[in-house]
Amino acid sequence: MSAARPVHVSPGAAHLPPEVLRLLDAWLPEQRWYPVPAEGVTHEPWLTVTFGGVADVVVALLRLVGPGLASGDESLVIQVPLVLTPTAEPEADTPDTEAAGLIGTVTTASGTATVHDGGVHPAAWHAYFTAALPGACEPEDCAELVGARRISGEQSNTSVVLPAMPHAAGRGGMLKILRTVALGPHPDVVIPAALTEAGWDGVPRYLGAVGLSGAGAGTRPGSGSGSGSASLPDAHLAVLSELVHDATDGFELACAYAARDEDFGERALELGAVVAQMHTALRRALGPGPALEPAGFMGVLRRRAAEAFADVPALAPQRAGVTALYESLSTRLSAVVARGDVVPLQAIHGDLHLGQALWSSDGWKVLDFEGEPQRPVSERTAPDLPLRDVAGMLRSLDYAAAVGQATDPHWAAHAQVSFLEGYRQASNGEVHEGTAHPVGGATSSGSALDVGTAELLLRALTVDKALYEVVYEFRHRPAWMHIPLAAVDRVLSS
């Protein structure tokens, strides 16, 4: 970052009066991106971030403290960008407060201040933008940001469309403010940057990021200046990528096809090819990972299944089938290792579904490589099996059929087969075709898996994903629980 727009980091609530913090205590739990149930949770100021030359923008990094939440360096930290402006008189609440981002007004020792959510305020957008792309423009003269708008409906981050920017060759940009901040290089920065540098165009082109230096594990809060470090920062606040114009969310697109009972096979075939290319690009850009260790891998699958069975009584009839499937897979994987073969792991997307892909005239683009925001970065960036991404997309196609209310009973199966075929073709023979079943065998380059073991592994990963979905729907959308429950039955009966 240039000296013109350094990022300054101070300990605690250095620039935030207590009155502002109390205002946030009431406002935060109502936000869609707030990551935990609010009961019993308090907000502990950890770091305060300001931008050089931008007086009104203050970013609060708050640790969430409460029952069941980690502490210390493992604390869950949320990012709250604020725009604080002096106010002669407290502003009356109006119906337009959501659009304006108004949180409220407070009276402090220095006077009355109006507090806005920086996620929806142009002043904060300018501050992040100029920190990510030093020299692009000044906050007071950013004509390129005219027309910027927040994307509504997001649940874990705040994204802002920037229609035109000189640094993006006129194509515009997408600014993502990471509402949950994790220690360590953020995967949604590191992976797009690596793929862009490697020349893979299946990801929106990485342009820059806003990061902190000296906020890493073992560092006391506020010990780092955060400005101008040439090394990879220890935490990221925002990422800027090229805008994909006239793009359609992949899940919305698939649901629209399903609602019309229109064949999604061609789009699924193309998406399968892009996912295979992504895995190849990730392997080349970030290198291979360690070999799969069957005992540990199966232990995780069994633990997740046991937790699902304990949480959802409706899963009881599936327990025996899941247990048998996992036993068969364990035996096969042990045999692979016993003969001295290696099943390599690698960097993957980790949370791949149709909503993580955009369709435009340029084809499919894959985005959102952050994984589950509440998991530690070390877990989210750990090498894994590419088939986990494949399983995630198969499940997403099934959801599209259900949510889109396809009346053709074969709509999802045909889309899944087409996706797998596209994946196989793009792998140039590296992925083997298994049975005609929608979760037929597939494996990646360099793997020692035979077709039968690969098919069994994909079935197990699909069940693992479906069990996760059952628990989620049981807790949040009981009316949808039948979708993943039916999937578990289908896979077990195949």
Give a structural overview.
With 494 residues, the protein is α+β, with helices and mostly antiparallel strands. It has helices at 18-27, 97-100, 122-132, 187-197, 250-259, 265-286, 294-311, 319-338, 377-380, 386-403, 411-426, 451-476, 482-493; strands spanning 7-11, 42-51, 54-65, 76-86, 102-108, 111-117, 149-150, 158-162, 173-177, 180-181, 206-212, 235-242, 248-249, 288-291, 344-346, 357-360, 363-366. The protein has two domains: 7-242, no CATH class; 248-493, Aminoglycoside 3'-phosphotransferase, Chain: A, domain 2 (Alpha-Beta Complex). It is built from 13 helices and 17 strands. Strands 1, 2, 3, 4, 5, 6 and 10 form a seven-stranded antiparallel β-sheet that branches. Helix 4 (187-197) packs across helix 6, helix 10 crosses helix 12 (451-476) and helix 12 (451-476) runs antiparallel to helix 13 (482-493). The longest helix has 26 residues, at 451-476.
